[in-house]
């Protein structure tokens, strides 16, 4: 039976259909934990395992399986749509997998691999049966020498039928029996095949032989017909009777094509990694140039705007006091240039977010207290009420997270209802998951902050638009703004590994929800680096 492990039923169903069409019995599990329970109760010939799963991932399940006596030799084929890097593929093999495929998977190739591993599994089971059979024969050797000879003949028939190179070795280290496939790599039934000098195959085997331990490894054996070295998986196990080794049974399994494919893949991954590093370096250079460009352009654009505003005011005050129509036109020009200046400033703020900055513990209460002083005049004019509950100390980039609160509180004050004083509530809770609907959890790793107002609100069907740069839901003449504030907030939250979302309805106010990690990974790494540096300095002293 074949076990398919995937947390998505839609991934399991097509695999079951393909395998069942080829007369394979299948079973499925939708989590690593469920898979382990089934493996304890049932025997499987092949396990097809998804890598990326909630709870236990595929690697953890494979490592756990390796500790089960009856399941540790079960072939595991890893499937992954995300973890395609060399380190994950290597981890797949080191954790017990026999193959690693990336999605989308070619059904024909997967089927061929399953058939091959299924057959190898059956052969392994046959070898185990042979081992038990041999042990039984040795135990009754004194009573049934003729029966032992028959059993030995049976062993030879089975080994002869294997697709692998199979052989037996006596307790003196000499070869007793080889099957027909042996002569692909050795012309003499009494001489081991020639191996590549760098592999030290026989030195390693001699060590296992002397210690009476099972030997497993890879080596390149010289093929007699082509005179080329090919990769083989070598496994030689001791046959025991009453605690003593009486014989060794070994197999050479051809894995040359698999090794060549892996080496080619590794080479391609190496080349691709180098290309990505080069591209990343180019992007960093370009990003730096763009930042420099933004600084220069912002200065050069703001200077003529200031002159336009200054001279427009002079013309209006000195020469047009009695011309209401001309004053109206100039006021529009002054207003447009002011809006252009705000737009340039907002764009510059948006571009600054690409600059790297360090996280540090931040008292959000102190930050908001300081921030609200900037809104004293508008709070007084609108008779606004702002209530702030106790907020935690979390890792942030203070200047950036201040800008998030500034934009959200500014919007709450700006988009208030006519004639109704704004009421703004800022509350926080500790949650376990980075999700807006996550439940409160005292020992959670995230902080959920809600900024709620009683303003004009918006239709939630426009939720995806409000965090996009230059997107506005309100008339420009009614409410000032550039349409960049929430885009800046979104970019800052992304940089903080956080989430920003909103809930609202027209004329019913709005809730803006921020979810931030209490501790940032970068801050932890920086602290470790600083502690290491301090320790090193202390040692030097």
Give an account of the 3D structure.
By secondary structure, the chain is of the alpha/beta class. Helix content is 48%, strand content 20%. The strands form four sheets. Strands 2-1-3-4-5 form a five-stranded parallel beta sheet, sandwiched between helices. A five-stranded antiparallel beta sheet has the order 7-6-10-9-8, sandwiched between helices. β9 (229-241) and β10 (244-254) form a beta hairpin. α2 packs parallel to α3 and α10 (364-372) packs across α12. It is elongated, with a radius of gyration of 36 Å. The two termini are 65 Å apart.
Count of alpha and pi helical runs: 15
Give the DSSP E fraction (strand runs of 2 or more residues): 15-25%
- Trace the largest sheet across and list its strands: 2-1-3-4-5
Mean pLDDT: 81
Amount of helix:
40-55%
Rounded to an integer in angstroms, the radius of gyration calculated over CA atoms is 36 Å
Beta-strand segment tally: 17
Overall SS class: alpha/beta
- Biggest β-sheet strands, sense, barrel: 5 strands, parallel
CA-to-CA gap between the ends? 65 Å
* Global shape: elongated
